[in-house]
From TrEMBL:
Alphabetical list of Pfam families matching this protein: Asn_synthase (PF00733), GATase_7 (PF13537)
A GO CC term assigned to this protein in UniProt: cytosol
Domain (Asparagine synthetase) ranges: 69-124, 127-181
PANTHER family with a match to the protein in the record: ASPARAGINE SYNTHETASE, ASPARAGINE SYNTHETASE [GLUTAMINE-HYDROLYZING] 1
This protein's UniProt keywords: ATP-binding, Ligase, Nucleotide-binding
Identification of the protein by name: Asparagine synthetase
Glutamine amidotransferase type-2 domain ranges (all copies): 2-45
Molecular function GO terms recorded: asparagine synthase (glutamine-hydrolyzing) activity; ATP binding
GO biological processes: asparagine biosynthetic process
Length: 220
């Protein structure tokens, strides 16, 4: 911060939320990781000023490269394996969670966590016996499953939520985006607030690699 000013936040890579107070002029900086993995709460008092909301949402200009996407996706998952507590993955059986679980299974044996807790990847799935979209997406079943996971001693879970938003614009209504600007804006909006191709085509294409196939679902 002293060397780069508030732009140093763009250099951070990980899960974080903090308030930084500069006692030289009593200014402060509030920052949180882009997806909001760690909690950040703001309370308002009668004497509060305004908190500026910076926005760095430049529309990507680099052309689609499946190899670059694949490596970025894999690195994001591997980075989350740098933990020394028992962890698992949420496995829905869809594309995103299957890729996350497969990559985690491939690299788990080399982690500090595996040496302490074993190399078996623990996956958790919620079986909803209904096709009602609202019910399936409801928070109550997830809350109950989270309590069960905690009771098993698992301290962290890796999910596909980042992939759904960051990489593929995973929900069906993204197909109706009128242009790339609106698509990108909505993707950023989704991250911050919790052309006729097959669904998530760019992600499927990135991992369509016969020379380096990922393990099947069952092996997780």
């Amino acid at each position: 911060y002293e060397e780069y000013g508030e732009d140093f936040v763009d250099m951070l890579d990980g899960m974080f939320s903090f308030v930084l107070l500069d006692t030289r002029d009593n200014s402060f900086l509030v920052a949180q990781d882009a997806i909001g993995i760690t909690s950040l709460y703001i309370g308002w008092g009668l004497d509060d000023g305004t908190i500026p909301h910076g926005s760095r949402e430049a529309i990507p200009s680099a052309p689609y490269d499946p190899i670059v996407l694949k490596h970025a996706f894999e690195n994001d998952v591997i980075k989350r394996l740098m933990t020394d507590v028992p962890f698992g993955v949420l496995l829905s059986g869809g594309l995103d969670s299957t890729l996350v679980a497969s990559i985690a299974a491939c690299h788990l044996a080399h982690t500090k966590s595996a040496k302490q807790w074993g190399a078996q990847l623990h996956s958790f799935v919620l079986v909803g016996e209904t096709y009602d979209v609202t019910t399936i997406r409801a928070s109550t079943p997830m809350f109950l499953m989270s309590r069960k996971i905690k009771s098993l001693g698992v301290k962290m879970v890796i999910s596909e939520e980042g992939s759904m938003m960051r990489y593929s614009g995973g929900y069906l209504y993204f197909h109706k985006a009128p242009n790339k600007e609106e698509f990108h804006h909505e993707t950023c909006h989704k991250i911050k607030w919790d052309q006729g191709c097959i669904e998530k085509w760019v992600l499927r294409r990135a991992f369509d690699d016969e020379d380096h196939p990922l393990p099947a679902k069952g092996s997780a």
